[in-house]
Amino acid sequence: MVGKRLAASISPQGASSLKNRVHRCVWPLSGAFLAASLGALLTWLTVSAVANRTQAAAQARFDSEAAELKVNVMARLERPRYGLDGLRGTVAALGEAPGAVQFRKAVAASDPRAELPGVLGFGFIADVPRDALPAFLDKARSEYGDSFALRTSGDAQDLYVIRSIEPLPANRAALGFDVGSEVQRRATLDRARTTGQLAVTPPIHLLQKADGSYGALYVTDARATDIDGRVRHVGWVYAAVHFPTALADLYHLADLHFVLTDQAASARAIFASESDALPGEPALFHRRETLAFGGRDFVLSIASRPELDGLTGGRRLLLFWELGGVISLLMGLAAWLLIGGRQRAVALARHMTQQLDRLAKVGELTMDSVLLADAAGRIAWANPAFYRTHRQCAAEVIGRPLADFCGETMDGDMPARDAWQAALAGQGAFRGETCWTATDGHVHWMETEIQPIHHRDGQFGGVVVIQADITARRLAEEGLKESEAFLDRTGRAAGVGGWQLDLVTQTVTWSAETRRLHEVPDDFQPDFANAVAFYPPGARERIEVAVAHSIATGEG
């Protein structure tokens, strides 16, 4: 009864008015909800894309720098081998253990501390039977005086005594030391004698260093060949290598932290770029590499530093989330205002313009240089990073031809130059390395990207140019090339060549020093048959047997 009275009290006009009021409330709210949801979805997609892109870029940068670090560390570990090979050849030529003067002259041909960083000195270790010890000491003291003092322990029948070491003033603490009196050192010398290959001791505290840091002895067996062709053991030549000195100049890799450990020596950290272990705070990127060298396995543990981890997002992603949330809310508000009335739409548009100005600030605050040029190729706008990089003001830049600031393509490469010029003319995109000379005469290398801008009708409207300064990276690459050239000069000075055989392609590669030793042109490309033909028949057969053995067993 009450329901009938209530229904009767509502007139048709009142019902229509109520329905209109409901529509006026529901539709704006529905539109606002849909617009805000769309904005949230777009924000999520944008942040996800940016996060994935920055993560991939940071990962690629880490992988590239980690690979470069591995190559550099391995090169530093292997470098003393060149000096040992030269000394080994000297002993083989003498046919006997070198005297103090002979060994000093052999080492004086190069300065190991300057040319081979980390090598404290080169030495010769004599294999002395205990019953021949008095005669050995008499001869040694006739050359060094009473300062030659034997230091040994135990009752082994043969002593492995450091007979000579140079430069002597910096290495006198090791002269006369019985290397065989210490178990690990003796085992390394025995392994070098048995295998004929370079052998490296476990990490040890060198006698020349009292600071508790680690080094190792690089040992190779010194042999001589008699007239009848019999090969006999003469002794050992060795290098005392100090790991912190050998790896010291790798600290410039600001994005990485690394630790070098010996896998067999209880994972002992023999060198760390910052401390004795990796940072306590977990890094985003990690890598472990095993470096096999001298009969030992070294583990190179690499982790990213906070500077590199910060490239994956952090504040920038938070900024995107904040801006996306604001824009999503504004989209919902815009929908409500547009549906609710024109005045609200105008007010909302004004507010959104302010937000768009804030978004423009993001582009202005980026560290990369950004240029906008019109269809005539003249600069219309540049961000602050551009002015900082080029050290010029807006009055000196705006209106000038874009080509004045894009530099030249790398090495004058014609295809790259054509693509660059076409991009400036709006006929395609360009991405590559360019260089320009600043007003102070310094050359800057830039990673340049040029993208054309087209209007909705397809007409060319100008270009946008983004440049990142890569001068430091280029200098690092040039430094690496200089290091490789230095290694080649070192091999030339030692008179040691090298060659390798690719078992997949059967390609033989000779070093420049090997070509020089064989007196062939620089462009000479041998195969295995004519490469072996350069050796005498007896040596040729031994090489063929050794190569066949390595192919069959994988052993050296």
UniProtKB/TrEMBL annotation:
The keyword Transcription regulation does not apply. SMART domains: CHASE. It is found in: Membrane. It holds the Pfam family PAS_4. Residues 430-482 form the PAC domain. The keyword Transmembrane helix applies. SUPFAM superfamilies: PYP-like sensor domain (PAS domain). This is CHASE domain-containing protein. It comes from Luteibacter sahnii.
